[in-house]
Amino acid sequence: MSLHLDIPVIETERLILRGPRESDFEAVAAFSASPRTQFIGGTRDRWQSWRGFLAVLGHWALRGYGFWTLEERASGTPAGRLGVVNHEMWPEPELGWHVFDGFEGRGYAYEAALAARDHAGREMGLGPLISHIHPDNARSIALAERLGATFEREGTLLGEPCRVYRHPKVETL
User: Fold this and answer.
1) What average pLDDT does the structure give for the chain?
2) What is the arithmetic mean of pLDDT over 107-136?
3) pTM (2 decimals)?
4) Torsion of Cα atoms, 136 then 99 then 112 then 7, to 10°
5) I need a surface site. Which of 23, 32, 142, 161 has the fewest CB within 10 A?
6) What does the angle CA 86 – CA 91 – CA 97 come to, to the nearest 5 degrees?
């Protein structure tokens, strides 16, 4: 038996935002074990990574939205994950992102975030979205501001300090 999830595919000039595939797990596990996770809960072992990988599917199943895998169109390689989450302890839906090692600095998160935010607003009726960003995560703060998000307030998330950025409302047709 298999569960079918209707995860939309979004295509941009350089990326395909799609649902996770089991073949993506090695890239996710490598990211999860790296220091690049310092602002999103820290490193995880393989078992914790697997549970987090499956949680992405569960979020889509329960909420009807979640994180997409960012596939680099030219190579077919997973380049990161990005999307909208609203975990049970979140105050409202959040646009979040992470880019895998070797793919940062190419504008992929910006390109994907614009497409995902537009889809979330137009197709899912979500927004204006927030992003929780650790105060020391200068790269994510810069990305949020480049996306037009504005600082709204200081907060905490899972016992860690965060800054809450509010994204602009997506204009619907």
Assistant:
1) 93
2) 96
3) 0.93
4) -120
5) 23
6) 45
